[in-house]
Design brief:
single chain, 601 residues, alpha/beta, eight-stranded mixed sheet, 33% helix, globular
Length: 601
């Protein structure tokens, strides 16, 4: 370990051993000894919770999982897999964790060697590890604990290094993350193999990211029970769909062997697919790549064996939102959406949120449920950092979507397809003249298409809750300094709002008194809002936007306003707005209430 940190042997010999007084690491482990008859549980499935030794991970364990597991008791076998790799808390594009030593990849059995490793890691890298172990031991002493670091993951699955390099290349303008962020099935396989070696066998492994929530322990038991009859090898929280060649960030986030063994259609528009289409292979014998959300999964032991063989034995590894799904279909096993998704609330989708520290909120720390989409291209590290600083508290996930600038032939095709009205007219571009296309018209059509791409992502990513809200921001949005506090107040009210969308920023709107969001801010029924630089929409609202904005007859914000006034869309506006654009003057209410707009983004 010390050699990895560049320390000399002399320094190693004289270094003080860590203080082990007040030992937070338990002296007994829940794991039965080899050959010992295991406890008889209500189900033959393993519940595996994935987390990290970060502030975010500790928060999720402390606020939910520790008390939840205490309530659950010993009714089902529970294990927690903890990735101790330090997160990129500073969101620095040059950040890496090459100095992070291997921890050993073990199921905690309270040996002195294990405790010394954990003490050393907690002292030098992550004090949160001590807190996490203490919380879990006090609340759920029966839970099994698996611990590993990035070097342990790469030792077990060397081809993940190649896959991670591919994903880093795909996201070259984003700050880097540990391997476990995008390939967290690897540590699940490691935990499963260790438990199997100890004689513990399970029909299935239920995997939950640490930001998944249940209202009560019985809901988890009911979820397992309601899906017990399914013979499919993989159950996922969203409908499985095809990987898209051009519209998905992580299409090629994989090792070369995986890319050579699989294929992606050049272009298609359908996300969800019928099970009968899942086993299709092309003329070269490659099987099609499949994707889904993975914040909660149920995986059979047979599929786990196949996944391990693919990634460890055949060097075929890929991004976690396509790897288990594609292995399932390539091997002729079944995949489907799990039943009774209403029993839980979803987590972060792709990567584990515990890998990223959160920005503190002075007013109070609330948990966001928003997926946030930003329409912006060519992101440098500084811009990414600024966006994260604004949205890390307000959003559960932050995703980026490219803007669109159509060519004249694209507009002609839109006319033929009926998505662009031949009588198109807007206040600034005038009437459509296909022989003379002013830049303003191209901008307006591209604006609609960029927003529509996001609406489709919202609808396609929906699992069980059509009232779940997402936020959409344009690149030039400027945030009020208390945006995080006001947006979280708004999220508290969102469940009771009878609206398809909420304008966070707008122009030419007539503001009225409404529901108070704190400070001087209200939310009221929209009158005639314009501008689309920032708004919330539900899944139902996103579908209505797709329907109401097709064909496109006016500039996007004009057509939205007409749909609202005609009853096709139910909308509310935050008044005064908590977002503005650079051309909008600083409003008088902002000066009188001493709230500034942050212009960093």
């Amino acid at each position: 370990h010390y050699a990895n940190l560049g320390q000399t042997k002399a320094k190693l010999e004289h270094r003080r051993m860590p203080d082990m007084s007040g030992d937070p690491f338990p002296h007994e482990a829940a794991l039965p000894a080899v050959g010992e008859k295991p406890h008889q549980f209500a189900f033959d499935d393993l519940i595996l919770i994935k987390t990290t030794s970060s502030a975010k991970g500790v928060k999720n364990i402390k606020k939910f999982w520790a008390p939840f597991l205490a309530e659950l008791g010993n009714q089902v076998q529970v294990a927690l897999s903890i990735d101790v790799t330090m997160e990129n808390a500073t969101m620095n594009a040059q950040h890496d964790w090459s100095s992070m030593p291997a921890l050993g990849d073990f199921i905690y059995t309270a040996t002195e060697d294990q405790k010394r490793k954990l003490h050393w890691h907690a002292e030098h890298h992550s004090p949160a590890l001590r807190i996490m172990f203490k919380l879990l031991h006090e609340a759920a002493p029966h839970a099994l604990l698996h611990v590993a670091s990035e070097k342990d993951i790469l030792k077990s699955y060397p081809s993940l290094a190649e896959a991670a390099a591919a994903s880093a290349n795909a996201s070259k303008n984003r700050w880097p993350h540990p391997v476990g962020w995008g390939y967290n099935y690897a540590s699940s396989l490691m935990a499963w193999k260790l438990l199997k070696a100890r004689g513990l066998k399970f029909d299935h492994v239920w995997e939950f990211q640490d930001d998944v929530r249940f209202k009560k322990a019985q809901d988890l038991l009911d979820l397992v029970s309601e899906n017990k009859a399914s013979v499919d090898a993989l159950l996922v929280p969203s409908k499985p769909g095809k990987v898209n060649q051009s519209h998905w960030f992580w299409t090629k986030a994989a090792s070369k062997a995986y890319l050579d063994a699989t294929w992606v259609p050049a272009n298609h528009s359908t996300f969800s697919i019928e099970p009968s289409l899942l086993e299709a292979k092309n003329h070269e014998g490659q099987c099609e790549r499949i994707r889904s959300e993975v914040w909660s999964t149920r995986t059979s032991s047979a599929l786990l064996e196949k996944m391990h063989k693919w990634c460890a034995g055949e060097n075929k590894c890929a991004w976690n939102e396509q790897f288990p799904q594609t292995v399932t279909t390539c091997e002729g096993l079944g995949i489907s959406q799990m039943a009774r998704l209403d029993l839980m609330q979803g987590g972060g989708g792709g990567g584990g949120l515990g890998y990223q520290e959160e920005v503190s909120l002075p007013q109070r720390l609330l948990e966001s449920h928003l997926d946030c989409y930003i329409i912006q291209r060519e992101l440098d590290a500084e811009t990414m950092k600024n966006w994260a600083a604004h949205l890390n508290v307000s959003c559960k996930r932050v995703m980026f979507s490219d803007p669109v600038r159509p060519e004249p032939k694209d507009l002609e095709q839109s006319l033929e397809e009926g998505t662009l009205d031949p009588l198109y007219h807007s206040a600034k571009a005038g009437f459509l003249n296909i022989t003379h296309l002013p830049a303003r018209l191209i901008h307006e059509v591209g604006c609609k298409q960029a927003h529509e791409m996001v609406w489709h992502k919202i609808v396609q990513g929906a699992s069980f809750d059509n009232r779940r809200w997402s936020a959409v921001f344009e690149a030039d949005a400027i945030f009020r300094d208390d945006f995080a506090a006001r947006s979280l107040e708004l999220q508290e009210q969102a469940g009771s709002l009878q609206a398809d969308m909420v304008f966070l920023g707008h122009c030419f709107e007539q503001c009225h008194e409404g529901i108070r969001l704190g400070q001087d801010v209200n939310i009221a029924l929209s009158a005639h809002p314009r501008c689309t630089h920032g708004y919330l929409t539900s899944v139902t609202g996103a579908q209505r936007l797709i329907d109401q904005m097709t064909p496109l007859k006016h500039a996007l914000d004009e057509q939205m306003m007409y749909a609202i006034q005609n009853g096709g869309l139910r909308a509310m506006s935050v008044c005064p707005p908590i977002l503005r654009q650079s051309w909008q003057a600083m409003p008088a209410w902002n000066l009188s209430h001493h709230h500034d707009f942050n212009d960093q983004v």
